Amino acid sequence: MNNATIQLKIKQRLNKLASNDYDNIECWNIVEAFNKGQADWCRRNLHGINLPKEGDEASTSRIDDLQVLITNYTPNLVSGDTYYETATVIPGDYLRYKRISAKVLDKCCPSPRPMVVYLAEQGNIDILLRDVNKKPSFDWAETFATFMDNRMQIYTNGEFTIDSVTFTYYRQPRKIQIAGCVDPYTQVASTIDIECEFKDDLVELLVDEAVKILAGDIESTIQMERASNSVEQNN
Predict the structure, then answer these.
(1) What percent of the chain has pLDDT over 90?
(2) DSSP 203
(3) Burial class of residue 115, CB neighbours in 10 A (0-12, 13-18, 19+)
(4) How far apart are CA 117 and CA 136, in angstroms?
(5) How far apart are CA 46 and CA 66, in angstroms?
(6) DSSP per residue over 89-147, as a string?
(7) pTM recorded for the entire structure
(8) Alpha-carbon distance 64 to 190, whole Å?
(9) Dist CA 45 CA 84 (whole Å)
(10) Angle at 186 between CA 1 and CA 216, to 5 degrees
(11) What angle do CA 151, 96, 85 make, to 5 degrees?
């Protein structure tokens, strides 16, 4: 769905197509509300805070809607005594964790071996390293990873070396831009159109998300309630 259609639909839902009063909606209002709306929608549905209580990959609908945001990142690693840490911080577009895949090496096994990597809590590191059933093991091809200071640590306990890591995560949705629209925060006009990357049926819900935000801003209660009900009932 192109940006002109999105603007038209939002103004229509707000009943502002022919309004000349002080409640006119500027293009930057629409851009800001739509981008906030899609970010809110993604966080809510990844977590499962919706009417059907469906979170990340809990149904084919969630998979269909959110798969466009899944991306891979291959970080450089710095070795330590008990773990390897990513040399750079987590990508700036990071939204939600998905999984970590690693290939490891051992003296008796020079070919990279796939390793199952579980996400663990920082507070349980000492316990996990001592637990014979949960500590890093080359024989069982299992280990755990943690996050701290926007970096990822994959634990080896000195038993093996890590050859490569692939970090799979949900990135933030691409923000739309409307050509010629001046951002009031930066005073810079957009030179190009950047359209929403989601499929059209989901964009319809995101339009309602934006309408809900804008209607609340201008204290238009009826439009806000209609949009809020619509976005959840059709989710």
Answers:
(1) 63
(2) H
(3) buried
(4) 9
(5) 8
(6) PPPTTEEEEEEEEEEEEETTEEEEEEEEEEE--GGGHHHHHH-TTTS-BTTTTEEEEEE
(7) 0.88
(8) 30
(9) 32
(10) 55
(11) 15
Q: Please say whether the beta carbons of 224 and 212 come within 8 A.
A: yes
Residue 73 has pLDDT above 50, yes or no: yes
Q: If you search the block for the tokens 């002109």, which residue do you land on?
A: 4
Q: What string of DSSP letters covers 30-63?
A: HHHHHHHHHHHHHHHHHHT-STT---TTSSHHHH
With CA atoms as reference, report the closest residue to 120 among 139, 149, 148.
148
Q: Which of 14-23, 27-36, 140-149, 184-193 has the lowest mean pLDDT?
A: 14-23
- Indicate the burial class of 72 (C-beta count within 10 angstroms; 0-12, 13-18, 19 or more): exposed
Q: How many CB atoms lie within 10 A of CB 131?
A: 10
Rounded alpha-carbon distances, angstroms, from residue 124 to 131, 175, 186: 11, 37, 44
Residues 117 and 101 sit within 8 Å (Cβ to Cβ): yes
- Count CB-CB contacts under 10 A for residue 62: 19
For residue range 29-51, list pLDDT tens digits in order: 999 999 999 999 999 999 988 88
Secondary structure (H, E, C), 90-104: CCCCEEEEEEEEEEE
pLDDT digits (tens, 9 = 90+) for 115-174: 999 999 999 999 999 999 999 999 899 999 999 999 999 999 988 999 999 999 999 999
